[in-house]
Amino acid sequence: MPAIDSKAHIQACDLCGLPCGRHPVVQPVRGRKREFCCIGCMNVYLILSESTPPGKDFRETELFRRSLELGLVSKPEADHGPVSPDIALDTECAEVVLHIQGMWCNSCAWLIERVVRKIPGIQLAEVSFANDLVKVKYLPQLVPPGRIEKSIRDLGYTSAKSQSDETRKDAERRSLLLRLGVAAFLWMNVMYLSMTLYVSFFEQIADSIRRYVPLVIWALATPVVFYCGYPILSLAYHGLRNRTIRAELLLSLGILAAYVFSIVQSFRGDPHIYFDTACVIVTLVLTGKIIERSAKDRVSQWITNLHRWMPRKARLLADGKERFASVEALEPGQVFVVKAGEHIVADGVVVKGESHADESLLTGEAAPVTKQVGDSVAAGSLNLDGVLEIAARRPAADSTLARIVKMVEAALSSRSDLERNVDRVAQIFVPSVVLLAGLAFLVLRFSGITSTGDALIRAITILVIACPCALGLATPLAITAAMGTASRSGILFRDSEVLETSPKVDVVILDKTGTATEGNLKLLEFHLRSQSSEPLALVVGPHSRNSGFATESLYGPPGDASIALSRLASLEQYSEHPLGKAFVAFARAENAPVTAASDIEIRKGLGISGLVDTKEVFAGNRRLLATTGIGLCGEMLNEAHQRESEGKTVTFFGWDNEVQGIAVFGDPIRRDAVSLVRSLKDQGISVILLSGDAEATTKSIASALHADHYESEVLPEDKAKLVKSLQDEGSVVAMVGDGVNDGPALAQADIGIAMGSGADLAMKAAAVVLMRGSLHTIPAIFALASRSMRIIRQNLFWAFFYNLLGIALAITGKLNPILAAGAMLCSSISVVANSMRLTRPLTRS
């Protein structure tokens, strides 16, 4: 890690542009000092800079642009889209997720998306019909407060900031049920009274009945059409206002045509009236909408649960006293209390107490997790027993739960290519049906094939049967159901397009450290060069008692060992690499003195160097030695080869341009890694093990895993290049990793899968996050995606089949409006039932 500058000045970060504060992270890059607000920005800057040829600005590369898209750079100096000349190019976009009330089909989503995108200053608008969510990115300087909501209200919908609002959902459900109840009751009365008119087709009835009964039926049908059918008519009207022909227009034309024609027939004294047709269309459409609403609520229950457990109040502890405060007031370092049965309000570390936590909401794992002093806890977890005092690590707004909610909402409001293609088809299909119905009426009426009434009924039947409700529901409902099932199993999708891409994956790249292995590196052996005749001495290892490194080691001179350990720990404390952390942890356990170091230089993929006690200390791999021209004795080289062939990791260290010894680290292979590779290969997917470690070490791990290929000694900036080269060969690549160095590769891959226990940067770059940190669920991702796409194709097939067959029957007069409305309801029910099969729990491979 670079030196920390203590000058009291405020400098902007050279990557993201945010203030660095009083203690920026300083790192020389290509002979020029750079300052960063955090180590994460420094690492991203180094990777981007080192992967760009000299003389070229990395901000112009495809890798940087991809990093911007995935949020690796929080405030880029780049153009995100059309902006006003008065707005700076580095102006940060704001983002809002709104809940929409009143969407009836995918045409609603398309219309909202289209209108919102026309607002000046809107950079992105994505609407998800299955979840009633709209995600909007906009420039606050150009979009006044409330402008987006007003545009949505003008379309006939209501919107509110996305939150767990059970009252809103209940009100919408009650409104639908009330309208359905009134429609069903009046429709039955209309049908009963219509029976008296049907009798006139076979025998004579009184003139008073013929004259007045149609007027009574008209009175009963009017509230059905204009009150119960108001949502349908309103959406059709607002669509026309915005020059959009939508599915509700088909229903509205059918309802109003039957209603108006029946009024004319009533005044003419003709018993052929169709008020019952208008009523039955409204009743069955409302029935279908309630079924769809129930299905949508069920598949979206998991996001509702996440919102429900978002904390509101924190029990702060100060001067031994408890007081309640808003979670927004909770700052890092403050201590709060969580009693049994309460939810943990922020991420933190237990400082007092012992208990068990239920983390199933976050990870999908039902087994309680023991929590004691020093353990990390996550917001949203349920404290099952005992009282915990917890020191907050970050604000509640940036907690694990809050980030999960944001990720889930972004995924739900995203649109896959398949959804967009279906939307395009629907936009062509609806006006085509209107033209077809009009043409059928004209041909049937003026060719003399049928009467005016019969021609009108056939046209109405075409409009009703062709309503693409099932078509609009086929894709989003299935995708939402699949994402909900994945979430309950601890799998979070950042983008719904993952489901469409996953079945195409033919190569999976596994990062070694922390992914294929447990990432729990430990110092196993510490070989120190001796001044005696022995060239290399084992200071600590498997046969050492190791109960006081500096005084009771079985091998090597204790004094020299203590000095070496202290120097290395003083250097490695500035490293973010797992090897450095493992070394420091060992040194602290042995009470070795750790002092300050200076002139720190981190060489990505090579090692670290710096000045400790006037000595130029270094630690790294063979490439570091080759780069600096430092020689290596044969005995030390043989010892390193032997350990690497056993799958261990070796680091060389020394000072004053001389290698003084080697450190041997062990990292056990994950128990679920072998079964993962076997499962992927059974699915026909090739597996590549990727590591920056030595070839012998990587080869040993790859052999144990039975991987198809391995790539060793890969520099961090070359990981993304490897993914790109595979993509250039035509492969669809999934990358599984967990470290900061994996971020660019995860971003480059067609699907990036990050372990939830990994670095935040890796999680931001990945399209999929495994909250359990387990590899067991990776095969389930591919299986779920394949099943989802199969069910979506089935939904689309049956939706088109119902429509095309129904239109043909309607034109020939084999289908009437009542049967058409029933068939439309059956079509929606079949799509809902088929999609709900995706709610079954995932099975582990």
What are the main properties of this structure?
single chain, 845 residues, alpha+beta, 7-stranded mixed sheet, elongated, disordered N terminus
Describe the structure.
By secondary structure, the protein is of the alpha+beta class. 48% of the residues lie in helices and 18% in strands. The protein has a seven-stranded mixed sheet, sandwiched between helices. Strands 19-18-24-23-22-21-20 form a seven-stranded antiparallel sheet, with helices on both faces. A hairpin with a 3-residue loop joins strand 20 and strand 21. Helix 5 runs antiparallel to helix 6 (207-228). It is elongated, with a radius of gyration of 34 Å. The relative contact order is 0.09. The model is unreliable at 1-10, 75-90 and 542-558 (pLDDT under 50).
| End-to-end distance | 40 Å
Our count of helices gives 29
Strand pairing plus helix content: what structural class?
A: alpha+beta
Largest sheet: 7 strands, mixed
Radius of gyration: 34 Å
Helix content: 40-55%
* 3D shape: elongated
Order of strands across the main sheet: 16-29-28-27-17-25-26
Determine the mean pLDDT: 77
